[in-house]
Description:
Strand order of the largest sheet: 5-4-3-6-12
Strand content: 25-35%
CATH class of the largest domain: Mainly Alpha
CATH superfamily of the largest domain: Winged helix-like DNA-binding domain superfamily/Winged helix DNA-binding domain
Number of helices: 6
Largest sheet: 5 strands, antiparallel
Distance between the termini: 35 Å
Structural class: alpha+beta
Order of helices and strands: HHHHEEHEEEHEEEEEEE
Number of domains: 2
CATH topology of the largest domain: Arc Repressor Mutant, subunit A
Helix content: 25-40%
CATH architecture of the largest domain: Orthogonal Bundle
Radius of gyration: 22 Å
Amino acid sequence: MTKPNLQLADALGHEVADKRLDILRRIGSAGSISEAARGAGVSYKAAWQAIDTLSNLAGTALLERTVGGSGGGGAQLTPAGVQLLQAAQLLSAARTQVMAQIAAQMTEHLGNTLPGAPGLAALGLRTSMRNQLPCRVKALRPQGQAVRVELALPGDAALFARITRESAELLGLAPGLPVLALCKATAVDMVSTGEPVLGRNRLSGQVTRASRAAGGGEVALALDGGLQVVGFSGPASGLKMRSVAVAYVDESAVVVALPG
């Protein structure tokens, strides 16, 4: 069987200081997944999720497990795992240098660096999700095996995402952290009015673009804080330019992402 090639661009296409890479690095040092999990401050299950995700992105195995023996077994990096960490270190150094240069140029020409979150780093994010909303984590509320993440949008609007505990751990979510809230346009229902619904986000705003098709279609909504949300309306919705509307999206349809 042909040995798969290491896909560096895919595995390192996000934040080079990703906690997943930190876990991989700790496994290389300790030779133990459980020790790496403790050192990174995540659960054993979250550590395995991190390695599985990285391996999928890299297109090849990053770990070799050893079972039994006097040491009770452990794990070591494959050559691909070592190469991935070396590439991550080089990218981190280059990124730090470039971002420092950009910040200096902004200070020179604008008098200060551009405010806001997540800022320039988010421009490198490529995804099919039409809605990409800069926001900050406001609160984390564990609910069984899930975590309900409250996100603060510009203009004091709130958006909620329901994710697994392991995902919250790997992202290092904490109040005040700048993140991106992502969701597909097809997951957003646009209506003229509506009451709050349990488990669904409700965002109010003004229509800036609306399909004139009788069967409904794409609608763009400007929120109070200036962000735009894109979704779809049903037949005979009555939505038109400058009318007030409501966007509904399930909490489980909202993805939380860290800018790269």
